[in-house]
Design goal:
By secondary structure, the chain is mainly alpha-helical. The chain has helices at 11-28, 35-57, 62-89, 93-121. The longest helix has 29 residues, at 93-121.
Length: 127
């Protein structure tokens, strides 16, 4: 059997690690009139992704699951936006590298949640 087929992807763990890395980045960011509001928004939207995914996994119905997954997708897109703005406001190379990695991960999470949402609502009367 192909070793890649047996890999289990734990999205709860992946989103938790993403949140932890996001918090680590935000702790390192220089605080200024520009960065403080961006950091606040980033922490809220970025940590919300995993929290909403956990809520989705405990959903009471398919509709509830789909709604929570859709929120995950929206929060990932918002997080991408705030990361992009922070990337432009910072000139520290270490922070820039971390920010770029998180941007990539945010994009991937957005695609994952988009696909889950699409599959959840596909062939369903839930819209």
């Amino acid at each position: 059997m192909n070793q890649f087929l047996s890999i289990k992807y734990d999205l709860e763990e992946r989103t938790a690690i993403f949140s932890e890395r996001l918090i680590e980045l935000c702790k390192k960011l220089p605080k200024s009139l520009i960065s403080i509001p961006l950091i606040n928004q980033l922490v809220r939207s970025g940590t919300s992704i995993g929290a909403n995914y956990r809520e989705a996994n405990g959903a009471s119905s398919r509709k509830d699951f789909g709604n929570k997954i859709y929120i995950c997708k929206k929060e990932a897109k918002e997080t991408y936006y705030w990361l992009r703005l922070l990337l432009k406001s910072c000139d520290n190379n270490v922070i820039l590298t971390q920010c770029q990695r998180l941007l990539k991960e945010t994009h991937e999470l957005s695609l994952i949640f988009s696909k889950i949402a699409s599959n959840t609502f596909k062939n369903s009367k839930i819209k």
